[in-house]
Amino acid sequence: MALQPTPLNRLSVMAGKKGLTDLHIPTITEDAQDVVGMQGRIRLQKDDKVHNSQWMDKQRNNLLAYEYLCHIGEAKEWIEDCLQDEIDPIIKLEESMRNGIVLAKLADWFAPGIVRKIFQDTKLQFRHSDNINYFFEALKVARLPQIFWFELTDLYEKKNIPKVIYCIHALSHLLSRRNLAPNIKNLLGQLQFTNEELSATQRHLDLSGVIMPNFMNVGSSLRRELNELEDEDYITNVPDLIIEEEEEDLSDSEESQLSIESATEEEKFERYWSDTMNQEKLRACQSIARTFIARKEFKQVHELHHSDDFVSLMSQLQAHVRGNLARNQLAQIRATYASQAKFAVQLQSVCRGYLSRAHYKRTMDYYKANIEKVIKVQSFVKNKLAENAYRKLTTDTNPTINAVKSFIHLLDDSDLDFDRELALEDLRQQVIENIRDNNNLDAHINSLDIQIALFLKNAITIDEVLKHSGAFKKKKEQQRMISEIAVNNQHANPFSLAGIDKDSRQRLELYQQLIYLLQTEPKYLARLLSMTNRQDLGDYSSHKLIESTVLSLFGYATNAREEYLLINLCKYCIAEEMKDVESTLEFMRGNYTFMKLVVQTNRGAKERQFFRTLLSPLVNEVVQNDFLDLETDPVSIYHKAINDEESRTGMPSNRPHAVTSQEALADAEVRDTFVIHLRNLREITEKFFAAVTSTVDTVPYGIRVVARELRLILEENFSSEPHERIIRIIGNFIYYRYLNPAIVAPEQYDVIDAVISPMQRKNLAEVSKMLQHISSGSVFEDAHDIFLAPLNEYVADAGQRFGEWFLALTDVEDPESYFGMHALTDQTNTHKPIVYLSPSELFHLHYTLQTNLDTLEPEGAGILHDIVTEIGPSAYHPDIELPESMVCLTLTNRCDNIPMDPTARLQQLLVDTKRLVIYVIKIQTGRDLAHIFQTPITSENETAWNQLKHKEFTETKEDFTIVSKRRLLQLGQSEPPLDLQTISFFQLKSIANRLVVHLERCKVIANNNAYQDVINMIARDITGKNTRRMQRDRELARMKLTLNHLQEKRDYLLEQGNSYEGYLNSCMTAMATKKGKKQKFIFPFTRQYFHMRGLQKLGLVPKFGSYKYTAKQLHERKVLLELMDIPKRHYDRIPIILSMDQAGIITIEGSYSGWPMSSVQVDMRYEELLQTQFEGVQTVTVLDGMAKVNVNLLIYLINKKFYA
């Protein structure tokens, strides 16, 4: 390693032979002088200025900075020569090189293809490091030794810029040695810099603390790393050796030295080389030089022979030689074999036979030893082949006959399918019955609640409560008895639809057709519900009955079919009701029927589970925090603060009670509490908001698809409205109509099980109000909400996010795809749909349709008009009480029995055609359906058809319905059904061919593809079979879950009813044991005295008393108003007895000789009389209509005599 040159040595080199005349270094070369006896060596000296003791160190440092800047200038000019482009000045070059752009351009110049893309940006970014890495890759290509490299941080973070410049110098020497780049110049002493530039550079070097590389020795260091010794080095060193020897000789003789100095140059040369010793030294040097040159030449030749190009060339030459030798050897072998061809063929034959037999034996032995594995592999291969065939069936546009035939068995309903259908129908019936029972229980509990409230506030009598507590059970018993009587007397019941006579059966079928039509043609119910919303159907009770009937009509959407049809009804209702809406503001203010339907149907088991999963943690967090208060009204907070102060101190507060909101907020305590409430409200609202917006796929499908239809209708009807406005309307519908009730009343939706206090409900209401503003995108601007204005920024931001969530909810597939439904779904199902309605619902629906028929079917003629006309007048009348027993309607399509419109008829014909084609391809096969129709029929085909008929159409008790549906085929309306079991295969094939041709004529299928469309339709039916089974399994699971939830609710309602009745029983016990009730005194020899004595003699004294009056007495008291067809002068002859032997049952007995029966006795329930009074009825008839009494005075008389 060469010694580090001192600054003075470097300065001497910079001065060179010309001395100091052309060299200018501030503070150093100004007025500089040579060292005495050493020309070219600068003498460091003070100038005339005043300096401190560090003047010499400063000059040395300036010399170091100058040399460093000169090396930067050398690198700059070399890069510019290479790139033929100008770069930044020397002073700025350090900073401009940090982005690596200059180095990347240089790398692309000397190593093309390395740099893919140069990242250029005015601001230094980390991506600029890619440019520096490109330079490193180029250094690898150039094979610059690693010792000259710099680190990425040396340049990017300016940790060691001198090392970067040193690397560029080394690279220049390397490339110039290979004649790939120009030589780098030596600019020491040729550049000038200001004092400030030198000082700044030196400060930078001092701060970095790096060691300055030896730029003067970079060439020799590079050669040393490359293991190369150049001639120049040797030549440079040889004179040094000679000079050293000269100095030794000259030191021996001072006289010789003086003579040499006094001689001329030529004389010195002649004298020196005439010396024998010097000649021997010269020859030694020449020998050394020749040896070095020879070794170098040998090394170059050796390196050339081991270079990649030479090795590749020699490899190609060797390959050619080896190939020629191999071809010559192969030709000789072939010639030998050709001369012995016959023997070779025989030998090969024997060898192949032996090898084949040996291989076959080994294979069979292996298979026998692993027979179980073979069976598994065969099963796997068969499954894969079947899977590939099924995938081909599902993906091919035109599947082949054989592909369809392989999976045609999947269209057959198995016993498992049949059993699951029965189980599903049974569960549906149980769900509907549970819903009705729960509704009745709920109504009973509400009635008890009303009676308890009346009892506590209005002091109603305990007997009224007692009688009412058993009213529900007695009513159920009465209904059961009425139902049994109706069953036993069907011929006498005008409302029965279960009769076996012709009229009852026909009326039942018409009702079944009517309900099926209303289900599958939603336009009628949509118009009817629109009339209900416009209050065009009479009183409020009729509207409610129609709405509840519609839900029963669709079985409360308990299975996929009914849910699909109900969603279609909602879609039609949206279109029907939006016809009259003129603006979005009007829509926002309306309360439409489809909203009620969606909200009611989307609160079943899965919806309640969704609410519970989503809201239960959030609501519990609010409810279980006893110290949480989200009150945002400053006045309310102010009043609460006063109450707390007075409760804490026991003294009246000095603060005034009547204050405004501004005055309340002026109170420091109120203001701090208000701010805390706002902060808590925002945090809790954000939790609710985050939880709600994190759910998209778990939101029930019904609400999502209705929201989508509503969005499409709004966008179509109000195309000029901004998109954000439409999204806000959808958000208001989804949140306010669907989510908001579950938040403000969580106990009603099974979100929580606990009872909510008023403060907790107030907190939930505040959160709900925030979410309501967020969903509608409206900020707090009203006077009563102005103090929530600090949350407006949050409301606006959350509203934007809520809108995105609402839009994501409406991105859902259509109902047909989701449910797997199509127009012929009912035709392919084994079981017909069943609906359960009460007589009142059915007959009232009939009555409403009949009354508004012209509005529902304005065309004047149609299927609805025909069915309603055929049924005749409705049995419904407001004054007639209908039985409560349920009517089971097995729905049928009227199009099966009456002439259908051409489109519907073609659809039915298409279904029948596919059935027959399936039977045909089960027996025969061919390349396409047309080819099968043209193929002659053999006896084997007839035998196979007979076997198929025996398998398909064998009747049993369990599957009679399925077999009948398979056997019978209705080809014409006027013709009887065709029994497939009675026809031959030839007839079957002929009928199928005619039907296909007819469909082709009607353009249902194409006429140029050999009836391939029919095969495609059958393939789609096969691939959709599994989807229908999966849907049925999901429905079974959903039904069970719904039934479990309904039973849980029933248990809850029963428990609640028992608690209510327990409370009533405690009231009754308290009233029955009260003191002060004394036995009334009866005056002797009065009418009452003799009446009681007569009863005592007969042993018929009522438990709670008996009182005898004349009609005249009751008439005078205004209790009795009149007796039918009896003059008032005879009233004193008519005795009337009031008695009560059983609690709550009043017996009224009267006798008169002019009546058809001399004595009339009736029982009247006391609670029914009270209910009559509650409804405002003034008079009622008793004694089988013989007497009219005043209700209020009769109750007063009963209370006075029996309960006083």
Automatic annotation (TrEMBL):
**Which superkingdom is the protein from?**
Eukaryota
Question: Which Gene Ontology terms of cellular component type are present?
Answer: mitotic actomyosin contractile ring
Q: Biological process GO annotation list?
A: mitotic actomyosin contractile ring assembly actin filament organization
- Residues spanning the signal sequence: none
Q: Which InterPro entries match?
A: CH_dom, CH_dom_sf, IQ_motif_EF-hand-BS, RasGAP_C, RasGAP_CS, RasGAP_dom, Rho_GTPase_activation_prot
Record GO terms (molecular function): actin filament binding; calmodulin binding; GTPase activator activity
The chain positions of domain Ras-GAP read: 548-776
* Pfam families according to UniProt: CH, IQ, RasGAP, RasGAP_C
Q: Where is the Calponin-homology (CH) domain?
A: 69-175
Q: What is this protein called?
A: Ras GTPase-activating-like protein IQGAP1
Q: What is the lineage of its organism?
A: Eukaryota, Fungi, Fungi incertae sedis, Mucoromycota, Mucoromycotina
